[in-house]
Input
Amino acid sequence: MVIFTPVLAEEDYKAAQKKYADYVTEKGGKIVHENAWGLRSLAYPIDKKTTGLYWVLEYQADPQMNGAMEIQMNRDEAVMRHMITKLDKYAVQYNAKKRNKVTAEESVTA
Output
């Protein structure tokens, strides 16, 4: 999960998402799912900002890549906070079921 600064324009927000998604694929990773949550309230102010642009990226990659990606995020001024977590097999199954159910419901209503 990455929280970008809320002062980014829409195209800058999209470019930042693409930057990190491309980084994962360039390092040999595979994007499983990405979800832009958009503007959300923060639990506490960060640098006098009370909102942030949230983005969740689920990917499969070599664990060594996480350290390098974390360094990139720490250097990026557009990133307010980030969190990288390893999903266990149950979380991966839950996310897959949730995605498939949503797409099945969307196809029924469409």
User: Anything to note?
Assistant: Residues 103-110 have pLDDT under 50 and may be disordered.
